[in-house]
Amino acid sequence: MANILSAILTKNNHDAAREFATDCASLSESVMTVHDLACGYNGYRAIEGITFDLRAGERVGIVGPNGAGKSTLFKALVGLLPHQGAISIQGASCKDSHAMIGYVPQREAIDQTFPVTVWDVVMMGRARQIGYILLPRKQDRIAVRGALERVGMWPLRKRQIGELSGGQRRRVFVARALAQQASVLLLDEPFSGVDAAAETDIFQVLDVLREEGVAVLLATHNLVQAATHYDKLLLLTNGRMIAFGAPRDIYTPQNLGATFGDRIALFQEGDQYVLVPDKPCHHEDDH
Fold it and tell me: Taking a C-beta distance cutoff of 8 angstroms, is the pair 9, 273 a contact?
């Protein structure tokens, strides 16, 4: 079998703390509710029938092959694309909810050679509160400092953005989203192109956000990571939602087959799962 990669997913005592946090989060009110969401381009429906909810502190992964509609879903949630259906943050109307979501796209359009500091980039997250004419106020500076401290980038606040590593830049962009003081954070492929150390740093930031009750929605291709590090998963393919729930409940041969076709197989032995991709889950030329 070509390109075989297997990983064992186990339910053990090491997961007890994460499962306890998940149970606590499940007792809280939903901070985000999405119902029958549909969105498209030039008359084509890229996604439709998307329904799910997020609770305070939850970490939810969006899993699916390239072209499944993950980025389109994020853009619809933050109001960058016209859509149908309902999006509500803490009971607010759909129009108001867009402003209550922090968004970190997969690729940032910041010129790495432009002389802008870490502080300046994060202050961009306060643009909605500041306006386009006024100068930053005390509360804006407090919000930026707090966001930088939460992601561990306060000591590098004066560093030019182009001088940072890939993982450090991701943390800065997360801080920029947090400076909006949003209760929901969307991360599109946050681990793409970063090394293991940077990945660990990002998860440390996510752990802090969990403790603060910030709900996080992440798009990912890493099926093993999704099963072991996220509270819930949303399986998406061809713009359709296949399943939503805890990894142990939705990682079934039927759901994975519907999501990835013949690209992946799942085998279960007791409490252990082995994921075996028969073919690559995505290709560079699929973007």
Answer: yes
Sequence spans of domains, the chain: 8-277
pTM: 0.76
Q: Are 11 and 248 in contact (CB under 8 A)?
A: yes
Tell me the pairing of strands 215-220 and 59-63: parallel
The first and second tokens of residue 203, run together, are: 């998860």
Please state whether beta strands 30-41 and 83-89 pair in parallel, antiparallel, or not at all (unpaired). antiparallel
Please, what is the Cα angle at 69 between 67 and 74, to 5 degrees?
135
pLDDT: is 46 or 262 the higher one? 46
> What is the per-residue pLDDT across 174-190, written as a single tens digit (0 to 9) for each?
898 888 888 899 999 88
Cβ pair 280, 260 in contact under 8 A: no
| Overall CATH class of domain 8-277 | alpha beta
Question: Which conformational region is residue 83 in: left (phi greater than 0), alpha (psi within -120 to 50 degrees), or beta?
Answer: beta
Q: What's the Cα-to-Cα distance from 99 to each of 64, 77, 126, rounded to whole Å?
A: 27, 10, 11
Whether the Cβ atoms of residue 76 and residue 91 lie closer than 8 Å to each other: no
| Interhelix angle 138-150/196-211, nearest 10 degrees | 120
| Tens of pLDDT, residues 89-106 | 888 887 778 878 888 887
Average pLDDT of the chain? 80
* Closest to 157 (Cα-Cα) out of 165, 149, 127: 149
- Picking from 53-62, 92-101, 205-214, 225-234, which range would have the lowest pLDDT averaged per residue? 92-101
pLDDT tens digits, 119-176: 999 998 887 777 666 788 889 899 999 999 988 899 999 999 889 887 888 889 889 8
Specify whether the CB–CB gap between 154 and 119 falls below 8 A.
Answer: no
